[in-house]
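DATA SHEET
Item: assembly model
Revision: 1
Owner: S.N.
Input lines:
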Amino acid sequence: MTVRVGVIGAGNIGQDHIRRLSRVLSGSRVVAISDVDTARAEQVAARLFTPGARVHRSGHDVIAHDDVEAIVVATWAPAHEEFVLAAIEHNKPVFCEKPLAPTIDACKRIVAAEMAGGRRLVQVGFMRRYDSGYRAMKVALVAGVIGAPLMVHNAHRGPSAPTTTTSDMLITDSAIHEIDLMRWLLDEELVAATVLRPRRSSRNSAELLNPQLLVLESASGVMADVEVFVNCDYGYDIRCELVGEVGTVSLGEGSDVVVRSAGQRIGRVPSDWIERFERAYDVEVQAWIDSVAAGEASGPNAWDGYAATAVAAACLESLESGQRAPVQMDARPSFY
Ligand code: ISE
């Protein structure tokens, strides 16, 4: 069976998903594309990825089209809600890039609409759950190899940030990954957050609070720190070390080969997340396609999207106040 997919948003990640849905994965075909910039959507469609894909003027036309069975939402975050809600209204499975939505209220509206429809339709693009390194860490933790978890040290560094980056986005766009991962890895909720402001990098505007240091607390008392540093210049560097009572488990360094030569040991630092998590994205989107074909939702769901945004909201509160902020989160409904 081939799942006919409509993609809304043809920027970097949208294009990358169109490429993988058309050329890399099995069981999918992109039949419709839209973007706020229709000319860009047309260029992307013409660039051999998607012979025959129709370009629509609006994402709503993509969702409504009879030929489209499943939707990918890869627009900027504030537009996620309207398209995810429309997909639910049309009873079509939807893969939504992270964050599910930037505000708690928007996430709650999505959760309420999905529950009212009675069918799980939403998968959120937390691709790191599909990364072989993070998965191996979870396997080691669950197997008891390091004992009970106590602390997690994370770093989320990128080489440069667009001028449109705001201080809040270090949390809502970047650290949202670690927020989701900590919930998934530790298999418990995060209950409080503190955000510290180290000295600002002189390489960005004076308004941008970069880097930031987050401390997330889990219900059982595990503390996870997250360094978010979005213009470190040297590459895209993601780290995670989980400290348990009798051992630690860490992510590998993210390069496939290490060259030893002339007295040096050299490995590549990826240039961006598309390179670093290429395989995780492939596994993630293939799992989504397979779940659509099977008619059974899987992967991070709308509730996970809501929970991550609720923790991000506590981080934003702490960034503003300088105080520790408790996470306000509803009880998880049995639907999830
Ligand atoms: C970006 O939006 C992403 O989604 C990347 O995964 C993340 O690492 C980066 O920091 C964000 O800006």
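QC remark: The mean pLDDT is 96.
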